[in-house]
Design brief:
Strand content of chain A: 5-15%
Helix content of chain B: 40-55%
Number of strands of chain A: 17
Number of domains of chain B: 2
Structural class of chain A: alpha/beta
Largest interface: A-B, 20 and 16 residues
CATH architecture of the largest domain in chain A: 3-Layer(aba) Sandwich
Strand content of chain B: 5-15%
CATH architecture of the largest domain in chain B: 3-Layer(aba) Sandwich
Largest sheet of chain B: 6 strands, mixed
CATH class of the largest domain in chain B: Alpha Beta
Radius of gyration of chain B: 18 Å
Structural class of chain B: alpha+beta
Number of helices of chain B: 7
Bound molecules: iron/sulfur cluster, FE2/S2 (inorganic) cluster
Distance between the termini of chain A: 48 Å
Number of domains of chain A: 3
CATH superfamily of the largest domain in chain B: Glutaredoxin
Largest sheet of chain A: 5 strands, mixed
Oligomer: heterodimer
Chain lengths: 591, 162
């Protein structure tokens, strides 16, 4: 049992439960303690030394992030000794750190930089002791690591281990050789890393960054030969506003579309169109698996980090994963086949750019099998293998998109809303909620229920699968048959559901697995910071938008219906299989 | 990896199946059993696969403790002091003599942190910051024994007798 204790902070009395750290106690008392390495609930390596406080009776200063309170403890957070020590500790970190903030991608968004400002560190008198230069890690399609800017706080290591249970990275070497790295320094691209980018969301410096594709996208826009189509994922509209000073949770769909139109993309389309398409294919796949005794539970496939995780760690469950491509990839193949035909444009002239909340999408777009449009046109256009082109050409993160909008000099805040172009910009509320954990499940059940019963779900909102609980469950009666579903986000939580499957004990028919905490709205490409309170607000914006949409079920999307009528014929049909489905290979780690 | 080595590692893993310093004990023994006294990548991959200890964690451990070797060691080890006293008394000369006359492998960029082994795995050459025996400069350690006032000629003779 926790008991209440009397403590003193800066000579004021407080009564607090004794199961908390000095850091927490100070925060409860409204006193700010600087921290760099600490990450609530995730990382407590106590390596930075910025959180030191004086405790009466203790000889040395104590690190507030790892010291617990106790009856009678007297804490001082603002003595000369404390201020000096914090400064010194920060100066020691800065000694080994480059000073080229102006050229740094994190400039003005950097925790280290603002900490130096906050602690009033204006000079640094310690020599740089990091002698060996570890080369930048450029092996991944999604991430980029610049060791020089790393302060070895290990937040990335802990997130990768505690939240994602991927454990791709660790601090290797010691002293001046210490650096965050993968097994034998092989690089993230050759490791078990699933490209989720959760590590870079928590990096306090510019040491970890998404691979930028901004320059390539500018060149596509500037190339008069190219017909440039942009698609934006559901989670972007609920977060990009933060980049322009809107409070978290502000939906900015109309402004986003307006900004993209101003940037002279030839078409501004919506990944939500293909999210609706995904639901139809995936819903039908589920029904077919249930009816024909196929492999169950079926697991969603739209999160490329999760796919990578399964291929690396759970090759045995690949049969359970829906064969549907992710909405991003479905969009690419539809744009370069159906839409190219419709406009009578050579598919090779079309450039498909995505804006994604996700760093793993960069990797996904480069998977060698994601060239369905090329396969489709091969014969007709007499193409050779070397002419192969990807379904999706470039992937921008939400942050990169915001950078481009700023660079283009667009006054995002004051734009009046515009609407997506037709037809691949048409979508439903079911697609909007894809961006939140539980959203794909909810959207799929809206449609599966209709397909099986011919009527609309009495209540479209499936509250049980909403919210930030790690694993959510629901059970539905569809025509006398019980359908059990589960939803997880954050790969650590996925492991529980996967263990049940491995042991043959999974009670579910359908499982949604999202790589990132909160779902796509918490993706590695989203605005920073992205703490739980912010995630909740972004999710709120999506559900609200769903509520306000006229059409809220994927099978009612008229543009998708038209696509089936004029091109695909029917869900799970021959054309669908060619363009919208894929398969997976169990790669294991280093085998 | 050949089945014999795998079998050996299996046995070692089994022996260290629980307890705190489990990984350390395991790795030490695997290194000891290795004919070249080091931990090859494939052995560590094997350990990771068999124990489910993350690859990166294992790499973190083997790079933290200096007694783990990640490159093959020679049958004999020569450590040369690169402290100031030894430098003035000619330790660089000894180093260059070895470099010139034996075919070493490894990253040879920093005199202060040398760790090289000959292609035939006979000799390992390391540099050491200071043995604390500056009066005897230049100091060389050969297979654990300290030699003071070392000269190229003497060293040559010692190596020839190996
Ligand atoms: S990481 Fe931060 S402090 Fe370092 S160069 Fe970049 S902006 Fe400046
Ligand atoms: S991207 Fe994800 S899996 Fe890769 S190192 Fe970062 S947290 Fe780990
Ligand atoms: S890469 Fe960033 S999060 Fe990781 S240890 Fe370095 S500074 Fe910390
Ligand atoms: S925050 Fe406590 S030591 Fe870094």
């Amino acid at each position: 049992m926790n008991k209440q204790v009397r403590i003193k902070i800066n000579n004021s009395d407080y009564l607090m439960y004794d199961d908390i750290t000095v850091l927490m106690a100070c925060r409860n008392a409204g006193i700010k303690i600087p921290t760099l390495c600490y990450l609530e609930g995730v990382s407590q390596r106590a390596s930075c030394g910025l959180c030191v406080v004086e405790v009466k009776g203790a000889k040395s200063l104590m690190r507030a992030c790892v010291t617990n309170i106790r009856e009678g403890i007297e804490i001082f957070t603002n003595t000369k000794r404390v201020r000096q020590a914090r400064k010194t500790n920060l100066e020691l970190l800065l000694a080994n750190h480059p000073r080229n903030c102006l050229q740094c991608n994190k400039n003005m968004k950097c925790e280290l930089q603002s900490m130096a400002d906050e602690l009033d560190v204006r000079e640094c008198n310690y020599p740089n002791i990091r002698k060996r230069k570890v080369p930048v890690d450029n092996t991944s399609h999604s991430l980029f690591r610049d060791h020089e800017k790393c302060i070895l706080c290990a937040r990335c290591v802990e997130v990768c281990s505690q939240v994602q249970t991927v454990d791709a990275i660790e601090i290797a070497g010691r002293g001046m050789d210490a650096h965050v790295t993968t097994f034998f320094d092989r690089g993230l691209g050759n490791s078990e890393c699933v490209n989720c980018g959760q590590c870079l969301l928590v990096c306090p410096t510019g040491a970890l960054m998404a691979k930028s594709e901004v320059d390539s996208v500018w060149s596509e826009i500037d190339n008069p030969e190219k017909f440039v189509i942009i698609q934006t994922a559901p989670a972007i509209r609920a977060a990009i506003g933060e980049e322009f000073g809107f409070p978290p949770g502000t939906g900015t769909t109309g402004k986003l579309v307006a900004a993209l139109k101003k940037m002279s993309f030839d078409r501004v389309f919506d990944t939500q169109f293909s999210a609706d398409l995904t639901i139809i294919e995936e819903g039908n796949e589920l029904i077919e698996r249930i009816k024909t005794g196929g492999t169950l539970p079926m697991i969603t496939s739209c999160s490329p980090g999760w796919i990578r995780f399964a291929e690396k760690f759970y090759p045995g469950v690949l049969d359970h994963i829906s064969s549907c491509k992710s909405p991003q990839q479905m969009f690419g193949s539809v744009a370069k086949t159906y839409y190219a035909r419709k406009l009578k444009i050579d598919p090779r002239k079309i450039s498909v750019i995505s804006v994604m909340p996700c760093t793993a999408k960069k990797f996904e777009a480069r998977r060698p099998e994601m060239t369905s449009a090329f396969e489709y046109w091969k014969k007709e256009l007499n193409l050779k293998d070397k002419d192969s082109f990807p379904d999706v050409d470039y992937v921008l993160t939400t942050r990169e998109m915001a950078d481009m909008i700023r660079e283009a000099g667009i006054d995002f805040v004051n734009l009046s809303g515009e609407r997506f172009d037709s037809p691949l910009g048409m979508s439903t509320g079911a697609a909007t909620i894809f961006g939140a954990t539980g959203g794909v499940m909810e959207a799929a059940l809206r449609t599966a229920y209709f397909e099986l019963t011919g009527s609309r779900l009495p209540k479209l909102e499936l509250e049980e699968v909403r919210g930030l609980k790690g694993i959510k469950e629901a059970s539905l009666d569809i025509k006398g048959k019980r359908i059990n579903v589960a939803v997880s986000h954050g790969l650590k939580n996925a492991r529980q559901l996967l263990r049940q499957i491995k042991e043959g004990k999974s009670p579910y028919h359908f499982i949604e697995i999202m790589t990132c905490p909160g779902g796509c709205i918490g993706g590695g490409g989203q605005p920073i910071p992205a703490g739980y309170e912010i995630l909740k607000k972004r999710i709120g914006a999506l559900y609200q938008e769903d509520q306000e949409m006229q059409i809220r079920q994927s099978h009612e999307n008229p543009a998708v219906m038209e696509l089936y009528e004029n091109f695909l014929e029917k869900p799970l049909g021959k054309m669908s299989h060619k363009l919208l489905h894929t398969n997976y290979t169990g790669k294991g780690i280093y085998i | 990896m050949n089945p014999k080595t795998a079998g050996k590692i299996d046995g070692i893993i089994k022996k260290h199946s629980e307890g705190h310093g489990r990984l350390l004990g395991m790795l030490e023994e695997i290194q000891r059993e290795n004919p070249h006294n080091y931990l090859p990548a494939d052995s560590l991959e094997y350990v990771a696969r068999k124990t489910s200890i993350p690859y990166a964690k294992i790499y973190g451990v083997v790079t933290f403790y200096s007694f783990f070797n990640l490159i093959p060691q020679g049958e004999h080890c020569i450590s040369i002091c690169r402290g100031t006293a030894c430098h003035t008394k000619g330790s660089k000369k000894i180093l260059d003599f070895l470099r010139k006359n034996y075919e070493f492998e490894g990253e040879d960029t920093n005199d202060a942190k040398l760790f090289l082994t000959t292609k035939d795995r006979k000799l390992t050459l390391r540099s050491v910051a200071c043995f604390g025996q500056c009066a005897l400069a230049p100091v060389v350690e050969i297979d654990g024994d300290i030699y003071g006032n070392m000269k190229v000629e003497t060293l040559k003779k010692i190596i020839e007798k190996f």
